[in-house]
Amino acid sequence: xxxxxxxxxxxxxxxxxxxxxxxxxxxxxxxxxxxxxxxxxxxxxxxxxxxxxxxxxxxxxxxxxxxxxxxxxxxxxxxxxxxxxxxxxxxxxxxxxxxxxxxxxxxxxxxxxxxxxxxxxxxxxxxxxxxxxxxxxxxxxxxxxxxxxxxxxxxxxxxxxxxxxxxxxxxxxxxxxxxxxxxxxxxxxxxxxxxxxxxxxxxxxxxxxxxxxxxxxxxxxxxxxxxxxxxxxxxxxxxxxxxxxxxxxxxxxxxxxxxxxxxxxxxxxxxxxxxxxxxxxxxxxxxxxxxxxxxxxxxxxxxxxxxxxxxxxxxxxxxxxxxxxxxxxxxxxxxxxxxxxxxxxxxxxxxxxxxxxxxxxxxxxxxxxxxxxxxxxxxxxxxxxxxxxxxxxxxxxxxxxxxxxxxxxxxxxxxxxxxxxxxxxxxxxxxxxxxxxxxxxxxxxxxxxxxxxxxxxxxxxxxxxxxxxxxxxxxxxxxxxxxxxxxxxxxxxxxxxxxxxxxxxxxxxxxxxxxxxxxxxxxxxxxxxxxxxxxxxxxxxxxxxxxxxxxxxxxxxxxxxxxxxxxxxxxxxxxxxxxxxxxxxxxxxxxxxxxxxxxxxxxxxxxxxxxxxxxxxxxxxxxxxxxxxxxxxxxxxxxxxxxxxxxxxxxxxxxxxxxxxxxxxxxxxxxxxxxxxxxxxxxxxxxxxxxxxxxxxxxxxxxxxxxxxxxxxxxxxxxxxxxxxxxxxxxxxxxxxxxxxxxxxxxxxxxxxxxxxxxxxxxxxxxxxxxxxxxxxxxxxxxxxxxxxxxxxxxxxxxxx
Length: 801
Prior knowledge:
The protein is of the alpha/beta class. Helix 25 (546-554) packs antiparallel against helix 35 (783-795). The longest helix has 19 residues, at 210-228. Strand 4, helix 5 (112-122) and strand 5 form a beta-alpha-beta unit.
């Protein structure tokens, strides 16, 4: 049976400690956040008559950390009230509280002596069945535990959360030499299921896996940049998405992380390295250290490799010249191979095109990539027992599209090794032996479908498929597609459940997606237990196909727009009243039409990081795929039963949510905004969302699912509309909204209040859908709406006109 962790203590209320405490609270744990007692009063405390014995003073550091969490950007907490799960204390008065805790994690300064001293004081208060971990980015776990008892060393290990802990998937778990393996297994299951993390078990070596490889990659990039004579922005153009890396590439990432942090890790690796070549590899150019000496550390100091400059009322981004340490305008790096690689749909193809090119960009990319691959292979079994751990660490910790060995397979293991040998490189013996055994890739699938990869000691690791991790793309490759068109596919996910997957560009909802949804509904009602709506792309859906809608409007194809809206309405109503359960599994961005499809499902299993919103007002429209109607129904459902409460404030709340295009900051926030209902569930681990949605479908089917019955909707009518319009008038008069904003708001009010009917009238859902359609057709013909649509498509930002 899996171990349950319910209470935790985080020691150290700095940026990282507080953020870890926030994420544990997000996951539902009760958390103690402790720090040292301040040595003296602040002037404000003295003025209040407080003393060093006052609890407010003694808990000041943890309490201030808690206040920072409330306003952190991006939010560290799922919702503001999540903070109630965190209690503050101090290390002088509250160490006995640790006896309540299932897990004690220390996140103090990266100093070996400080950590040792802390654990000496903490150990007597640990329960024998608790686990204890040090959050460190690279210090030795063995060294931190030196001098502690055998019992402590068995329950102690390292945890390396990546910053910010809420958003970064990776946590490296590092056992010490005496750690009980059962404690590690228990914690890893907890971290995956409850904290939603991707867990990689690393060995106790300097900087573990991700920071070691990532920092080496930056160091060799700096060296190759000087050799090729490239500038900062040239390198960022090459080492971004075309190379399978994030858009922030190399130097924008360093500006976000902080140059001081990078230098700390690089210097630690240089000092810990046993080989001269490795120490040299981690050396940093003098101009980079000069930047640090001047305090140019990146975003935290206002400037780094880039800086923002206000000129003539606009913001300009400048880039540093390494030769002079002066800033100047950015330049566009142009290269035919870069354009070709950027057009490739998959990361593997982009990388392969780039590194095989004889152009300077291709030669630079190969020089960097080659060194990273060889370094990783040389140090592989010092860092982890198998290559999958390394690939996952780089994908989850540095947001690479592919890990090092996945990249190696993508560019061709055998030909790339031959190229390395021709260039005089030292290829590790274990790689040569793997190839000599007749293998042409690191990840090998045998005739029985079993996938394996190299493991420590010359062996191989069989990659076990986890039933909770359902990959729709893998199922499609295995021939499980029932039907497909360019916008969506229906996939058999087993046990009589089908899944509708969006795969149009950005998962936009167009006619092809709606047609597949309608067909899937008919198919599910006859042949399946139920239907899941999910995806494998980075986001669930950006909403309706705005470009297509704008083109139709500019051409005056009003009948075609009308047909599309009617098709949308028919589809969502079919889903809502289907005789089989429909469960949506939203995640990432769930906007506009994508949200409307979810709102029409019977249940949702949302990933914790779900950013859902009806954002149509941002482009001059209103939600017309059933979203406005569904938010009104949710408002009606919110009225406490058995009370005389008026519906008006609940309708006003729905109006504000839609009019202001509010997007949830989490799935928990989506519940508070009314997008999710109380019966909808949230999964911390996004990899499990399809599995959990499938299980919900099966559970509903076994329980004898019956679709909801369509019931009339009470509205507040023209009387309620008048009050809402007064609010809009006051906003317009105070110039807080534009005339066109007011026009959009009036259309929205008409739908949410039921149109030209008296208070208390019962209207049908189809009546409300007609009001949606009329409002949309009116607004999409407005020149100012079309201006907003064009601006959003061109810039990705809303226009206020």
